[in-house]
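SAMPLE LOG
Freezer: B-3
Tube label: C17
Construct: single chain, 123 aa
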Amino acid sequence: MTRDTDQVSLPAFLAEIRRRVPRGTAQVSETEQRDPSGAMITRIRYASNTMEHRVLARLLWSVVEESAAKTGFRVIEIAVLSPAVLLLFSAFIDYYLNDRYDRVTIRSALVMNGISTPTGTEK
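STRUCTURE (predicted):
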């Protein structure tokens, strides 16, 4: 059994995000749903100092970095993600797995928008 304070791998963390996505009424606009990556980057850009957006930026960087398998997250970090961000990230995962987004495009968007890596330096 995984506790909220446990460190888990990126794939396990993504699975937990998917499990916690709210059901029912969409809490994001249709525009955001069509481009979840762009919507998340916009959210980070306008409020980069919030814990939610720091976790979100780290998640996005972890997906595009070659060493993503080594990245660990604490399950409790999911608690800082709003229902809207959970929905967006879940849609992002679907698009990424279906090749709508690729690592180079996401990495470029993060760099162009000045969104730092978890260590604070842009790649």
